[in-house]
Structures are given as structure tokens and as C-alpha cells.
Amino acid sequence: MNTAIDAVVRERMGIDPAALGPNVLTRAVEGRMLARGLSDPALYTARLMTEQSERDALAADLAVSETWFFRGGRFLFERLSGFLADRASNRAAGTRVRALSVPCSTGEEPYSLAIAMHERFLTPDEYAIDAVDQSERVLARAAAGRYGAFAFREGGTDSRPAYFRRADEQWELLPHLRAAVRFLSGNLADPLFLAAERPYDLIICRNLFIYLTPDAKVRAMANFDRLLAIDGRLCVTPAEADRLPPGRFVPEGPTEFGVYRRAGVGSGLHRALARVDPAGDISTTPAPVKTPAPSRTGVPKDAPAPLPNTIEAARLFADAGRLDEARAACEALIRARATDADALALLGVVHLAAGRSDAAFDALRKALYLAPDHVEAVSNMMALCDRRGDTARAAALRRRRDRLAREEPT
């Protein structure tokens, strides 16, 4: 390989060609020369030295874009979103918690965090996610939010039914989740990287340090020192932990998750992180829910006969304490129209009354996905989260309930 090109890649781009594997740089340069219609390596070297766009294009071809949704496991993103939600619950109104994903590649990582934040009932006015990559080409793909089936190869719950819609042969992330992420172009090894940005509560930087030159690592760590809040968290892969400066960071929780804090700052896991078990569920036992008392006849006195296949009929059954019939009525409504938020919200209440907290959580979560400002679903999910000890989710829902109360016409 041309030594001048090698030097540009090392010094200007911060990439160690040797870490990419044999002949990777050679093949990438040959491909770029062909794309530019060049046959003289010296001419291509001059273009590479003078054109930022060409360096970006070569970086995109060199990038190891091995990424997918919830890479590393959903539990990792539960931990990260739990940390942010806990911080958000202690912030003044209008002050958002901030997260940075770098390099973000085609967007699966920051979008996974956005989904995890959504599942904690936080709205984009409570958090901000910035995602950065060198390549304008991959950033354009990330902003489009369209993915093939291979992007969903992580085991566990499939996120597509709830958060994506079919787009030809691909899956397109729903607009409100795409809007939660801001994509920016930048190089972490640049001393002026995100120079105008305020500190972030969380920085996710996985699978990058192994490809950087020693000088680029020093510059990257200087940027982390500047951009990471004093009591923030840094997430790397466990394989990269030994590349962090000795004595500067300590693990926060199990080392297999690669979450670190500054040494000597904020010892101990945040409560929101400690409460979540490996299945992503809260392990506390909910308090019993009072069941509506039925009348002697099983139907409230003077109530009209329940109308079949209506939410009113289901409510009458629930009010009378006839929970099996109320559940059957709600489920019939949902089978007829899966987007019936009222039926899902009522089904959640019925499950609560019957002591089925997991089923109640699932029904209320679906109701809030369809109608984020559904007052009944917000209030009941808030109470359920309180009973399960999930204070971060409960706090987010309490803020939403209070906002809805302020907005209600007098």
C-alpha cells in the first residue's frame, strides 16, 4: 500500500489499517479509485489529502458496520435507559437528559436506545439522542430508518410489530422514533469533535477503539473527558475495556455490559439499574388491587342492559365485578380492532383487578403506544409501576399525567 495513503488514514482519519485485517485498505482504495475514475495512486493520494468528502467515502468503505438492533442484548439497553430515566426524574422541567452514540453507523444502536426510552414512557422533550458517524452515506441510510430482516437478529422479543411498518421488502421505523434521534457527521478523533455541544449523561462508543491508532485513542479520550458529564456513564464493549486509560474509569455493574463511570465519582449503581432482572422485569411484588364489588344481581342497580360489542358493555361488566365477562368483552373489541386504545386500557384495569400484573402491564403499554395521552391508561400504568417499585417509569408517567391535567379545559 502507498505509504502516503497509509499515513493519511492513520493521521487524518485516526484508523489503524493493520487492525482492519490484511489487504482491507488496499481493496478499499482500489474501489475508491475505480469509483473516481482514477488510475494514478499519486493523484488519488492528493485527492484524499485535500478532500474531506473523499476521506469520508474511504472511511465508509473501511468501516466494519457490523451492527443490528439491540446488539448486546435488550437487558443492556434496559440498563442504559433505566439510568437515563432515573436522571430525568430528578431534572427540572424542560431539562433533557442527553445521550451520544458514536460511531452510529446505520442507526440501529441509537434507535434501539430510543425504543428503550419509549418503553420507559419518556417523551423526546425529556431526552435527546445524538448519533455521529464519519460517513455521510451511512448517515443518510440511518436517517431513512429502513432495515432488512438481518438487522433484527438479536434474540429475544422482536421489536418489529410494535415499532416498525412494512416498506416493500424492508422494515421502516415509525416516524416518532426516527424523530427522537439527531444524526451528525463527525470524527471522534478530531480535537474539535462536537466542540459546541453540552456534556452528555451517557456516551455509547462500542467497537471503535480496537480500530484506532494510539494517537487517535488519546484524542478520542480527550473528547470523552470534555463531553461526558462528571457523573455520566460511558458504554464500551467488554473487549475494549482494557483500552480505557488506567485508573480513570471503573465498572458500573457487571463487567459484561461494559458500562463505566469516572473513578471516584458516584459510586454504586443507580436504583433504576439495580432493580431490573435479566428478563427486563421488575422483581418487586405489586400491592393488591381492590376489586369492584358486584351487586346482588351482578349488575349495578338501575343500569341499562349492556350493549353487545361496545366499550360501554365491557365497562358495565367491570364495574359490576364480573371480571371474566369484562375481559372477554375487551378481548372481543380488540380482535375486531387491534388499535382500540380504550379497550386495551380497560383490559389492563381488569387484569389488575384480577391480580394479573404482567398482563395488565402489557395491555396498558399497548394502550399508551396507541394513545400516549390516554388519561386512564397513564394513571393506571403509573400506579402499577409504583407498586412494582419502578420509580423511574412511574415518575415519567406522573409528569405526563400532570401535564394532561394542566392542559385539560376548565
Q: Structural class, from helix and strand content?
A: alpha/beta
Q: List low-pLDDT spans.
A: 267-301
Helix count from the secondary structure assignment: 18
For the CA atoms, what is the radius of gyration? 26 Å
The major β-sheet equals: 7 strands, mixed
Could you give the topology of this structure?
Elements: H1 3-11, H2 17-20, H3 24-36, H4 41-50, H5 52-62, H6 74-88, E1 97-101, H7 108-119, E2 127-133, H8 136-144, E3 146-147, H9 160-163, E4 164-167, E5 170-173, H10 175-178, E6 181-185, E7 200-204, H11 214-227, E8 228-235, E9 249-251, E10 259-262, H12 271-274, H13 311-319, H14 323-336, H15 341-353, H16 357-370, H17 375-387, H18 391-407
Parallel strand pairs: 1-2, 1-7, 2-6, 7-8
Antiparallel strand pairs: 3-5, 4-5, 8-10, 9-10
Provide a brief overview of the structure.
The protein has 410 residues and is of the alpha/beta class.
Q: How would you describe what is shown here?
A:
The chain is α/β, with parallel strands linked by helices. The protein has 3 domains: 3-61; 74-274, Vaccinia Virus protein VP39 (Rossmann fold, 3-Layer(aba) Sandwich), CATH 3.40.50.150; 311-407, Serine Threonine Protein Phosphatase 5, Tetratricopeptide repeat (Alpha Horseshoe). The chain is 46% helix and 11% strand. It is built from 18 helices and 10 strands. The protein has helices spanning 3-11, 17-20, 24-36, 41-50, 52-62, 74-88, 108-119, 136-144, 160-163, 175-178, 214-227, 271-274, 311-319, 323-336, 341-353, 357-370, 375-387, 391-407, and strands at 97-101, 127-133, 146-147, 164-167, 170-173, 181-185, 200-204, 228-235, 249-251, 259-262. The protein has a 7-stranded mixed β-sheet, with helices on both faces. The N and C termini lie far apart (74 Å). The relative contact order is 0.10. The model is unreliable at 267-301 (pLDDT under 50).
